[in-house]
Amino acid sequence: MHVIYSTLVQELHSFAKVHQFEKAVVGLSGGLDSAVALCIAVRAFGARNVAALILPEMGITSHEDIERAKILAEHFGCESQYQPINNFLVDFHFVPWEQSEEAGKNLRARMRSTALHHYAEVNGAIIVGTANKSDLQLGLGQRDGAFTGHLHVLGDLYKTDVIDLARTIGLPPELVDGVYSRNLKYRQTDEEDLGAVWSKIDEILRQLEDKVDHDAMIEKGMDALLVHKLIRLVHENEALTKSIPTVHVGRISESIKKAQKAEAESLS
């Protein structure tokens, strides 16, 4: 994981240099993915050139997430901007068309995206995207919402990879082992939305990436309903996944696995 972390830092730095960015901005939610992305950005640009935008919705975002985001920004010594999005959403309560819960969730994400783009344009900063590979493959966001960003540094890492990376770089246990939420509705959690824990979800996604037949997965004891659900989501979001700019580390990950296997075999 140290090699992957260094690679992510180097790739972000190189991308920014090619596109003439000297500053970076990260939407810091108080959750795991944005915390890891902030670590990478600080290493790539230096703390004084990185801004963390904390964009909660009061009444939806937990107090713990807000305080954690503030503490993380202070810990890394980067610029921190705190702006609740509630006022941005007010007028949408009075639009003359029907409302829906899903549209409301997406609207929150798009408001955060708009704030990030505004800050980036004013300050000439690159928006460091925070989406991981699991989120992208399952379509847990939109390109102009949760998937906004000039480059997604975690986009080739499954959620469980990000958790391992967070442990490697020393993020606190309460963040690494906490509840994973996109703060799109009150007490929302990713695992409740998907109907399984991330370890099971990622196991299936890895099997799909390796072209394992779905019947073979079910025969191995994987939940049939979950397998079919994830297959459907992956197929529905193939075009979206390909359109999101990400740092690719798959080849590096495979090289590490081969090296670890060879080392284990030599010791046996």
If you had to describe this structure to a student in words, what would you say it looks like?
The protein is 57% helix and 8% strand. The protein has 268 residues and is an alpha/beta fold. The model has no long low-confidence stretch (mean pLDDT 90). Strand 2 (50-54), helix 3 (63-76) and strand 3 (79-82) form a beta-alpha-beta unit. The chain has a five-stranded parallel β-sheet with strand order 3-2-1-4-5, with helices on both faces. The chain starts with a helix and ends with a helix. The chain has helices at 2-18, 32-45, 63-76, 86-89, 101-123, 133-138, 159-168, 173-176, 190-194, 198-209, 214-219, 224-236, 238-243, 250-267; strands at 23-27, 50-54, 79-82, 125-129, 151-152.
- The portion of residues forming beta strands comes to 5-15%
Main-sheet strand order equals 3-2-1-4-5
Number of helices in the DSSP assignment: 14
Biggest beta-sheet profile: 5 strands, parallel
**Molecular shape:** globular
The Cα radius of gyration reads 19 Å
The percent range for helix content is 55-70%
User: What is the H/E order?
Assistant: HEHEHEHHEHEHHHHHHHH
Low-confidence stretches: none
Termini separation comes to 23 Å
**Structural class by helix and strand composition:** alpha/beta
- The tally of strands reads 5
**Whole-number average pLDDT?**
90
